[in-house]
Amino acid sequence: MEDTLQYAFFILLAPLTALAALSLTAYARWRYPSRQSASLVWLNVPTTGWLLANTLELINPTQKGTFFWSQVTYSFIAFTAVAWLAFSLRYTEHTHWLNIRRLGWVFIVPSFTLAAIWIPGLNHWIWPAQHFTSVLGMLAINVDYGPYFWVHS
Q: Coil, helix or strand for 34?
């Protein structure tokens, strides 16, 4: 029962949260046009994409569609940590770290994660098995986590 409520609240609140995050970001960018607000935009892109893709994952009625949106969700998840690091460095004015030579190394794990997500032969490194269950008429995916999932996490 409590899992059912969790999904219902998520479906109701996720679009509102995405709208609030995008509105706040647009307002911050408009009202305070600075490098910090620009990096806030780049932080909110993967975060909001993660939220919306996860919502589409839940409301999609087919297993193939649910798995596709799960892949999209994890694509955003892969780059959220990098965006958060870039935002933090920009906000704290440690901009000397924001160059391709130093920050480029941080993109290695997310890039491998994208490959593991989207190349069919590599999916088992992240999700060796997927199970689908119906919750409130929606299709939820439950996965077993493979060895690369723990590297990515």
A: coil
In tens, the pLDDT along 33-75 reads: 887 778 888 888 899 999 999 999 989 999 999 999 999 999 9
Among 60, 74, 53, 63, which residue's Cα sits nearest to residue 123?
74
pTM of the model: 0.87
How many Å apart are CA 50 and CA 69, to the nearest integer?
Answer: 10
CA atoms of 110 and 50, how far apart (whole Å): 14
How far, CA to CA in Å, does 38 sit from each of 29, 30, 91, 123, 148?
7, 10, 10, 34, 32
Inter-residue contact 132 to 66 (CB < 8 Å): yes
Residue among 111, 143, 151 nearest 127 (CA): 143
- Cα–Cα distance measured from residue 140 to residue 3, given in angstroms and rounded to the nearest whole number: 11
Q: How far apart are CA 33 and CA 123, in angstroms?
A: 41
